[in-house]
Amino acid sequence: MNKKAIKAWIMYDWANSAYATTVLAAVLPVFYASVAAATLDTDTAASYLAYTHSIGMLCVALLTPLLGTLADLSGRKGDFLRVFAIIGVLATLGFSAIGEGDWFLASALLVISTIGFAGGNTFYDAMLPDLVPVERRDMISSKGYAYGYIGGGLLLAVNMLMIQQPGWFGMSSTLAGTRLAFISVSLWWLLFSIPIFRHAPRRPASPDMPGSWKGYAAMGVRRLRQTFRQMRRFPQLIRMLVAFWFFNDGINTIILMATIYGTSIGIGTADLMLALLLTQFIGFPCTLLLGAWAQRWGAKQVLIVSLSVYICIVILGYFMTQAIHFYVLAGLVGVVQGVSQSTARSLFSNLMPAGRTGEYFGFVNITGKFSSIFGPFVFGYVGQIMGSTRWGILSLIFFFVAGIAVLLTVKVQKGMQDAALADQEEGRNGSFGAPGKSSNVRFT
Questions:
Q1: What is the pLDDT of residues 308-327, one digit of tens each?
Q2: Alpha carbon of 145 to those of 37, 50, 166, 283, 338: distances in Å?
């Protein structure tokens, strides 16, 4: 393994997690409502922000499968990552220039920064199989998420001080501190991305690569069509994808709705923000520890345990009444959130056909984005018809139970790097192809 490249890969999660924590989760929603959309009523501002997130995710969903295909064909995932990261950095920097009533500019910058952040992560995730042998992927993937927690959490703590104590940083007001926070996120993202810009792995380009962007696009579209047709050859990957649609929707809904749920039952803003910080700092050691367990006992087993904890979180959330309860649940989320995402990523990398991880992670990205609309809808609809958001949070049990049920059917063969190997084994046993002799290979 190239140790410099692996360290650089891990450090990129440290870099871009500042955007996820400070911009997406903590600062931008308040800034958008109170400054950018100050000329709109509260409900309209909230709707516009929701629509903006949807547009950004739709753009990512439509772009990344094609770009992932091109990255695989060209062998230049690092170059694509660099472009998307810089797009995200510049758009984030642009938030610092938004004035009162500039909601359209704020929405446009959010769409662009979302494309930079989520689009770049497609190429970042797809680098994992190029850098790390299969037996080390669980641990390295977990380290990436763990360092992301600590990096994002550290800068968020500083950003909260910038906003709440702007005088300490030479700022005259909370608004000036907020603008400085956006600038700090863009600089942090750029600075700690430099290692991956320098050490990203390169693979030889396909010998059939065309010499023009038009040719790239045509070949990429052809290969995408092949992907859709060939997916049925990888039943283990399909099962993992279906399981991911369910449990990832549940996890994303908890992330998106936790703050508004806490507010609806009377928990104060300060407690909500501190709980977010708690999640970050608990997530760091727990992701490393559980990542080591995944490497020893199997990613699938650890993922199932983490999803079972989410079921407990949802049940406890239904009965939550005080701020201390929210802190406890935030701590539990910190324990399992990173490892659930990192083990899912490593499982996907082990189940994808070699040499096409960019394309397949793009496919996971687009389907994951489209599937993620159901969790918030179910949360809102159930809460509305039952007259309480408590029933909305309880309804999320379905997504985790369904995800675990499908995940139990996924066969992951230890030490193998290609989905076809596990699928061929199933075919030899008579499930998909001609009957053959049973194998002594152990599945986990």
A1: 999 999 998 889 888 888 88
A2: 33, 26, 30, 8, 6
CA distance 152 to 15: 8
CB 189 within 8 A of CB 15: yes
Q: Cα 164 to the chain's mean position, in Å? A: 29
Relative orientation angle of helices 269-297 and 299-319, to the nearest 10 degrees: 150
The first and second tokens of residue 391, run together, are: 């029933």
User: String of b and e for 227-266 (b: at least 16 CB within 10 Å)?
Assistant: beeeeeebbbbbbbbbbbbbbbbbbbbbbbbbbebbeebe
Bridge partners, residue 413, by sequence: 443
Query: What is the rounded distance in angstroms from the CA atom of residue 119 to the CA atom of residue 126?
Result: 11
Query: Distance from CA of residue 329 to its chain's centroid?
Result: 20
pLDDT tens digits along 313-363? 999 888 988 888 888 888 898 888 888 888 887 888 888 887 777 677 767
